[in-house]
Structure to design on (596 residues):
């Protein structure tokens, strides 16, 4: 496991099936990525955009839903950068409750100048930060299986 | 274009970048799929679960974000079933504003009995309904290109 | 009844009690007020803020929840301005489903210049528009009772 | 100050005015009340409803918005029960950021049996718990002024 962001799942996150509504899961994952930035860089998306003039809009998200999320446990979101391109970065987020993987997602963002939404390279300190924390680009489930083998 | 569900994007859907927040897009897409059920079957997820005892939880979503969504235009969500398995169904949703594709997503659901969350085959009328509306399993962008070729 | 904004309540709006989650109700009411602006002025909050440099932040909301909101019916939100001050405006929103009042709320906004968040008088056209549509400052329930008396 | 629930305000909570969207504030306040139950009783709304068969739907909320909420600070929500009726309970929630009061709200709930939504008295342990933590039924702002006087 890498860096983990904890989320308290509440009544209002759940639907009549008594589990977190599917559309809340990407929301949780994005909150976890935002928290990764704030924790590692000292700036979340809000500070990046407003104080620094850097946007990181998403171009793709791909999520497997493996087990329901409920308020019975904290939701532990493992976040890690897994690929760094010239103008893009990919994160993987794995959500666990009570030791069980609930979802695995891969998210690709591009770096842009907010004023005109044009792609740009990440600033050197951000490129270095991402490179430093780069993890294998594979699901946690696969990694766990490899470690056991 | 197939069946279209219109969504009014509002101020509260937008983030400080002045565009709909990324985590709202899957929410819009799911609302559109729910509306597809209600329009075609006469039952949305609420009625399916509570009146009929059938759940259709998601196992995967994969979304490409192609252009920002804003309150400047209605969001037109084209919804179509594209694959039917023994216990699963896949939908594609294409979101357009002002004629421009904003996002393309593919969503896979399984049929379950809500009481114990076990997979099941879709009831015959639902299987027939999905089969009747089945569309090619490819993005709209690709379909548009083929039609022009 | 005055001007009505219709909202489609969906599965994802509901909590495990199988009714719309309480915190969704103010969201619906605000969407209805935003829709009032767009319909009457041709500009919603997004256009007011970005194109015109006028903000209308809320200073108070007071909502009575009278009956559960569900996906069984459309939610009809009756919106009407009920008080106009030098730098403020109040709206009442009444939510109905199937002819039954589900909630009644009163919302007070102030006019501000977005750049520095200082209060200002509404522009003349907006003051005139609000004055023109001004309704009695009382709940619908009370109005209905009076009409019957 | 009484018991405090901390909320991390994120990018996705903010609107184009760069502050938390008004409709997010009641959501935050409700999350804080749910967290009060979980922390004091060991059961939040989810456990109360599903494990214990007790619902606490809202009948009124009244919120003053005093200062914008942003991601610059944690949002500290002070929650306290302030009135206990035969079948109802009222909470006050005060939201602070960086020492400044952002909002003050009063929320009234009733106790119901979820199966038929009929009002009931709170179970003895819950009545005792609420009585034990009862605080003055007045805004924090007023209490602060009194303490200084």
């Amino acid at each position: 496991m890498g860096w983990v962001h904890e989320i308290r799942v509440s009544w209002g996150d759940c639907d009549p099936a008594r589990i977190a509504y599917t559309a809340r899961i990407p929301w949780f994952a994005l909150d976890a990525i935002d928290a990764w930035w704030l924790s590692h860089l000292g700036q979340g998306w809000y500070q990046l955009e407003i104080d620094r003039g850097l946007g990181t809009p998403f171009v793709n998200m791909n999520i497997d839903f493996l087990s329901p999320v409920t308020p019975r446990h904290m939701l532990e979101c493992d976040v890690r950068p897994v690929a760094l391109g010239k103008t893009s970065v990919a994160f993987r987020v794995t959500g666990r409750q009570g030791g069980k993987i609930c979802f695995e997602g891969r998210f690709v963002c591009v770096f842009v100048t907010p004023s005109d939404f044009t792609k740009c390279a990440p600033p050197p300190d951000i490129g270095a930060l991402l490179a430093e924390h780069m993890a294998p680009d594979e699901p946690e489930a696969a990694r766990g299986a490899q470690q056991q083998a």
User: Anything to note?
Assistant: The first helix of chain C runs from residue 24 to 41.
